[in-house]
Amino acid sequence: MNKVSRFLKTFFLVDILRGLAVTMRFYFGRKITIQYPEEVQPSPERFKGILRLYKDENGKPLCIACKACRRACGTNCFDIEGVRDPGTRTMRPVKYDWKLDRCTFCGLCVEACPTTPKSIRFSEEFRMATADKSRLHFHLEDMYLKGKDLQKFFQGGSKT
User: Fold this and answer.
1) Reduced to 3 states, what is the DSSP secondary structure of residue 33?
2) Nearest in space to 100 (alpha carbons), one of 46, 24, 43, 153
3) Which parts of the chain sit beneath pLDDT 70?
4) Is residue 60 within 8 Å of 119, Cβ to Cβ?
5) DSSP 3-state assignment of 112?
6) What pLDDT is recorded for position 159?
7) How many CB atoms neighbour CB 98 within 10 A?
8) Which of 53, 102, 111, 112 minimizes the C-alpha distance to 75?
9) Which of 8, 35, 90, 132 has its CA 20 to 30 Å from the CA of residue 155?
C-alpha cells in the first residue's frame, strides 16, 4: 500500500501542488509591503540603535565623565577624559570617543551609567551605513547628533 500511495503522490504531483497552493495564498493575500524611505515602521520597544549622549533640559551634558561605561565595555570601544567644572564642582567630559566598528551593542555601558536619567542611551536611529570607516568613530560633539544631522555625518557631510 505504501508503494501505491507514493506512486499516486508522484504521478499527480501532490507535493508540487501543495507548494503552489502556498505560493498562491501569499500572492493573493493581504500585502504588507511599506514604502521604505518615505514610510518607516516604528522600532520595537527594546530596539538597540546607535548610542547617544543626552543633555538635561538646560542644555548641559548629563555625562559626569565617571568612565563607568568604559569599564563595563567588553570590547574597549570608549575613550573618555573629563575635567572638573570649577563653578559646579562636577566632572564634565572634554573627550568622549566611541568606536562604532568595535561596539557589539550589548548594552552594558548603558546599564553601568550611574546618572539619572541615563546620560548614555540607545536611540531610535538604525540607518548607519557608510563606506568610509572614519565615519564609524564618534567624538564628543558627534555623540549628540540625531536625525538628519546624523545621516549627514554617516554620508560624509559636514558635522553640525
Assistant:
1) coil
2) 153
3) 1, 157-160
4) no
5) helix
6) 52
7) 26
8) 102
9) 35
